Amino acid sequence: MQKLEIAGPIVQVAIDVLTIDEALRIAEAAVKAGADWLEAGTPLVTFAGVKAIGALAEAFPGVPVLADYKMMDGVRKYVVETARQGGRIATICAVASDASIREAVQAAHDSGVTLISDLYASPNVAERAAQLEALGVDAVYVHWGADQRKERPDYDALTDLAAVVNRVAVPVGVGTFSVEDGMRAFREGAKIAVIGVPLIQADNVEKALREYVQRCKGA
Q1: Which of 87, 103, 8, 6 shows the shortest CA–CA distance to 41?
Q2: Which pLDDT tens digit goes with each residue over 156-206?
Q3: What is the pTM (predicted TM-score) of this model?
Q4: Cβ neighbours of residue 203 under 8 Å, at least 6 residues apart?
Q5: What domains are there in the chain, each with its CATH number?
């Protein structure tokens, strides 16, 4: 398996639910809406297991599936299992040790998985992004997390995006919470815009995601 070529704009839908059946329902809506990547979110992988990755990959062949493990240690097995399940992309936490980053990079090279590092909770986001690029990751994500947003709902999730885009040559993705976030993300140089909650909780998920895809890519 060859690594993906990341050529934006890419819309990634974060399927942060707890069951495979619910994940497949959201994934179907996302694919119909024009999403490019499907993310087996951390809650899905944790509660339903790695078979959730395989279920998405089998149900939607040709649509890359990302396994959002948020790996920290003992990382090789997670990267290899991503490939075995038919996934194409896996995430590792930026705050993991450099030893774990190097191990994940090697595993990704061996298995053909694209490795993305999530900058969540990094003390110096742009500096860590540059270090990760030097260590060999394929892309980085700027991520203002759910708990952070709950505590500080008015904080701009894209605050660190420009600094990271200006610092690294690898593709940069960013977690967004609205159509407006996604439009700004691409305008400010992101290659990947990630959307999950709240749009995957909409009464009409397909309609909500189609608006996101069309308006954000149009930006």
Answers
A1: 87
A2: 999 999 999 999 999 999 999 999 999 999 999 999 999 999 999 999 999
A3: 0.97
A4: none
A5: 10-218 (3.20.20.70)
